[in-house]
Amino acid sequence: AQSVTQLGSHVSVSEGALVLLRCNYSSSVPPYLFWYVQYPNQGLQLLLKYTTGATLVKGINGFEAEFKKSETSFHLTKPSAHMSDAAEYFCAGGSNYKLTFGKGTLLTVNP
Amino acid sequence: EAGVAQSPRYKIIEKRQSVAFWCNPISGHATLYWYQQILGQGPKLLIQFQNNGVVDDSQLPKDRFSAERLKGVDSTLKIQPAKLEDSAVYLCASSLGSDRGTDTQYFGPGTRLTVL
Asked: Is A31 at the interface with chain B, CB within 8 A?
């Protein structure tokens, strides 16, 4: 069964600093992996997804993630944090037709 | 393009009462999902429809929760009777349904339910 683990329920960075949000997956089959962002009182919005092909995936708002099969990881990064990036981020794994979400990481950006 | 619509946005009820949520997916999307998001956790799939048929309701507490998707478009999720532990945000999402493994799911704003 697919499971997704997000390391760190809360990450705090300074504006302009590197953002790194960690996600590890567990699966016996090649996974489909997603990162979603949730702003307060809003639904989830897709940042990026990995299905097949290039393992470095670029998404919206300057975010990217790299699929590393050997490490079963799909960490999300952004070179320079903006105040507007403050939100909750969810990693999700898909297999067949079901998405399994991690517990989320709350990102705060300090001025 | 209009997004996924949900109503109401907020609902407060007492335990043992009934409540219903409504979802209108993006036009043309065959697949519709209902998720439960408890505070501090990721969304958990409750039920998934493909057109008007149920393809997965394995995590739906069927003794109190029910859902339908008439005519393969709008959907309603009902809780009867509600318990305190049902307090959560209920998210509706839809996708094209062309490839349910990799389809992007588009989420509505959710309904925040508080059970007192």
From this structure: no
